[in-house]
Amino acid sequence: MATEIRMPALSPAMEEGRLSRWFVAEGDAVEPGDVIAEIETDKATLEFEAVAAGRLDRILVPEGGDPVKVDTPIALLVPANDATRPAATAAESAAPAPAPVTRPRPRGARAAAIPEPGWPAGAHLSPLIVREALRDALTEEMRRDESVFVIGEEVGMAEGPYRVTQGLLDAFGAARVIDTPVTEAAFAGIGVGAAFAGQRPVVEFMNLSFALQAMDQIVNSAAFTHYMSGGEIACPIVFRGPNGAAGRVGAQHAMCFAAWFAHIPGLRVVYPYAASDAKGLLKAAIRDPNPVIFLENERLYGKSFEVPALDDHVVAFGRARIWRSGGDVTLASYGPAMAATLEAAEALADDGIEAEVIDLRTLRPLDVDTVAQSVTRTHRLVTVEEGWPQGGIGAHLAAEVTRAAFDWLDAPVASVTGADVPMPYAETLERAALPCAEDVIAAVRQVRYR
Amino acid sequence: MAARDGTDRAPEAASDDDVALYRDMLLIRRFEEKAGQLYGMGLIAGFCHLYIGQEAVVTGIEAAARPGDQRITSYRGHGHMLAAGMDPAALMAELLGRETGVSRGRGGSMHMFGREAGFWGGHGIVGAQVPIGAGVALAQKQQGRHAVTFVYFGDAAADQGQVAETYRMAEMLRLPVLFVIENNSFAAGVAGAAARSSLLDRARAYGLPVQSVDGMDVRAVREAARDAVLHARAGKGPVALEARTYRYRGHSMADPAKYRTRDEAARVRAARDPIDGLRRVLLEAGLATEDDLRRIDREVKDVVSAAADAARAAPEPAAETLHAHVVAEG
């Protein structure tokens, strides 16, 4: 009897993979541990080993085709002594190439539902995933300004732990794309010193959790020096990298730093959701004369969005983006929590409840006005974020909006947040720790009293 | 460049330049004595770390500098700013928290900067200036300048992890840095804890050429610095130079210095004081007379008194300007 070999999940956030090469042919015997295929993900190219002994009966996904979803059967394995049917020839068995994988459009992202796209009307739009939008922003800014350089672990030869810096080493050379040893405090501090002296460094942390090693340089040196020097020394630097939950990586690689950094005067804090904002805000961050914390998320890197084809798409700090308009409730969110927020808005619309969805995009400076204005129309506010509740962005926004629009509010502001626990590993627990659309819908019902 | 001890060399003949060294060291000494007095009067507050006793280190190193060279140090930085040519009046005004201070009263003793003088702080976190200094050197290299960056830190800061990380990065990137370890024999509150590895062993382990010099002899420091600067400026990468010196005062004004006796400090002062030492050299070589030196002393005192008077008369920052300079515009 044949067993299916399926497309493996080779990293926490992997959704699909491309079979770049088969090392075995139909009819070959395989042993556990034999490398049978090479699989290319959006992060890396990895070898795939057989887990059981047998004979490869059929290859269902030929090499070199389109990516297929994780868990899709890619080959059939039969016991080594199974002679019930002869090995098919490759020509006969070449399974039809799977239908091209279309990524689902982000729910709620229909062009018609976006009142403020944030770019000139009539701009040509084309789909782009977030990691490529970030890469394009880096490439464009490095071309534009030779003082811009990239420094961090695996940014050069390896082209980025998440491939955000793909192609940069080839394009700009090792003097501007600097691979570092595992020395977060030193390379963050070196970035700060270079920024003082007129360069524009982009410091990549492989994970924002590792920035804790460099927190002294980010806060005491980068954030405070302009003030401490009475305006004499500016620090135009970007600290960027994946932030928050990725998927089954446990507490030490999954923390959201949005509220932490937004607490610090002297820093700018950005957390884009869509690819167009990832690109436009990163370009703005590199040009800003202040230190900018630029937060990304591993689950968003592979997500596709419409991006305007403009020569220079820059998104200014301090302006929220309205994703859909509605008069019944305001949903204010940012970063990866936008996905659950938009999903909830869609479901609410099916029930006749029209939510206005706002992506805050920058958390310092924070666009309280756009949210307060919205509340004067909807009279109800729910904040949605993946970070923790105490001292969170939602808590701060609730206080600010309550102060600014108290007379318009018909219910206390509700906040949907990540659970107040270090991120657990088990799938059930992790799912319970992150806000989902149902949580948002429940909060909307709470502020509507029905 | 092999490890060696600058004190082993035959003494260099004294020259007219040495009179300038005398004046530079004396300016630091008198400025710091004045700061100590004003602190005692309550005009300077917070943490104030004096450089008295260590003057030969920065003076000797800076004598090897060229225009365009850069420098950075810790919270014990008044001497470094004076040696880099910054205005004593602007420094004193900052110590008093005045709007005319070099940081407009926002920084205080530990947080002063001077872009034009190539002085990048003034850092209150022990060891933090070390990677920042390497970054300043990286910027010089990227901008195609042939500048050397002097990164000053103490023996206690050398224990910080980011110092080791910076040795690694600076060596890897062949940065034009001179790491100057000011071994003043005392960390805050304790006498130098005996370590199995010397300060220079650690730098050497990362592939840096190292050198140790008597930090109480300004001419020896200058000579050692010239060698090290040549190496760094030639693009051969960073160098570590240990200057063995002695801090006369407490770690900060708040340190009772229980880790040594008054006698010990007095003995060092009598035998090894860097200013008295150079004074003897100048007189013996006939480069200056007692009168010349008295005149220099008077001039320096006048500069320091004028700085203190101007600072006391200067306005404090207006409370309405509290939020100015948090972010850079443009």
UniProtKB/TrEMBL annotation, chain A:
UniProt feature, compositional bias: Low complexity: 87-96
Enzyme class: oxidoreductase
Domain of life the protein comes from: Bacteria
EC number: 1.2.4.1
Protein's name in the database: Pyruvate dehydrogenase E1 component subunit beta
Entries under PANTHER family matching the protein: DEHYDROGENASE RELATED, PYRUVATE DEHYDROGENASE E1 COMPONENT SUBUNIT BETA, MITOCHONDRIAL
Coiled coil: none
Subunit structure: Heterodimer of an alpha and a beta chain.
Annotated NCBIfam families: PRK09212.1, PRK11892.1
GO terms, molecular function: pyruvate dehydrogenase (acetyl-transferring) activity
UniProt cofactor(s): thiamine diphosphate; (R)-lipoate
All copies of domain Lipoyl-binding, residue ranges: 2-78
Spans annotated as Disordered: 87-116
InterPro entries: 2-oxoA_DH_lipoyl-BS (IPR003016), Biotin_lipoyl (IPR000089), PDHB_mito-type (IPR027110), Single_hybrid_motif (IPR011053), THDP-binding (IPR029061), Transketo_C/PFOR_II (IPR009014), Transketolase-like_Pyr-bd (IPR005475), Transketolase_C (IPR033248)
GO biological process terms held by the UniProt record: pyruvate decarboxylation to acetyl-CoA
Function: The pyruvate dehydrogenase complex catalyzes the overall conversion of pyruvate to acetyl-CoA and CO(2). It contains multiple copies of three enzymatic components: pyruvate dehydrogenase (E1), dihydrolipoamide acetyltransferase (E2) and lipoamide dehydrogenase (E3).
Keyword list, A-Z: Lipoyl, Oxidoreductase, Pyruvate, Thiamine pyrophosphate
Catalysed reactions listed for this entry: N(6)-[(R)-lipoyl]-L-lysyl-[protein] + pyruvate + H(+) = N(6)-[(R)-S(8)-acetyldihydrolipoyl]-L-lysyl-[protein] + CO2
Automatic annotation (TrEMBL), chain B:
GO biological process, one term: pyruvate decarboxylation to acetyl-CoA
UniProt KW Repressor keyword: no
Reactions catalysed: N(6)-[(R)-lipoyl]-L-lysyl-[protein] + pyruvate + H(+) = N(6)-[(R)-S(8)-acetyldihydrolipoyl]-L-lysyl-[protein] + CO2
Group of enzyme by EC: oxidoreductase
One matching Pfam family: E1_dh
Entry EC no(s): 1.2.4.1
InterPro entries associated with the record: DH_E1, PDH_E1_Alpha_Subunit, Pyrv_DH_E1_asu_subgrp-y, THDP-binding
Keyword annotations from UniProtKB, A to Z: Oxidoreductase, Pyruvate, Thiamine pyrophosphate
GO molecular function, one term: pyruvate dehydrogenase (acetyl-transferring) activity
Cofactor list: thiamine diphosphate
Database matches in SUPFAM superfamilies: Thiamin diphosphate-binding fold (THDP-binding)
Positions of the Dehydrogenase E1 component domain: 24-319
PANTHER family, alphabetized: PYRUVATE DEHYDROGENASE E1 COMPONENT SUBUNIT ALPHA (PTHR11516:SF60), PYRUVATE DEHYDROGENASE E1 COMPONENT, ALPHA SUBUNIT BACTERIAL AND ORGANELLAR (PTHR11516)
The protein's role, per its UniProt record: The pyruvate dehydrogenase complex catalyzes the overall conversion of pyruvate to acetyl-CoA and CO(2). It contains multiple copies of three enzymatic components: pyruvate dehydrogenase (E1), dihydrolipoamide acetyltransferase (E2) and lipoamide dehydrogenase (E3).
Record NCBIfam families: PDH_E1_alph_y
Oligomer and partners: Heterodimer of an alpha and a beta chain.
Descriptive protein name: Pyruvate dehydrogenase E1 component subunit alpha
Provenance organism: Roseivivax jejudonensis
Phylogenetic classification of the source organism: Bacteria, Pseudomonadati, Pseudomonadota, Alphaproteobacteria, Rhodobacterales
